[in-house]
Amino acid sequence: MIAVPKIVLIVLLIFVVWYAVRWFNRVPPPVARRRSRASPRPQPAVEDLFSCRVCGAYVAASARGCGKADCPRPG
Fold it and tell me: Residue 13 above 90 pLDDT?
């Protein structure tokens, strides 16, 4: 038969292991989270693409052309 002190020791050991795992997997403190939100990364610009009438390649509206010699967009 298992004695009461052994049961208490096993329960205490389980609690210590559970608490240690919880401590290692904790969420970073709020100060670090605030600091990461203070300097957001700039979002990349999104542009619509237009099909080149000559070759059918898709080119950004701000691009000079598709790179072909007979492209109608100014090079």
Answer: yes
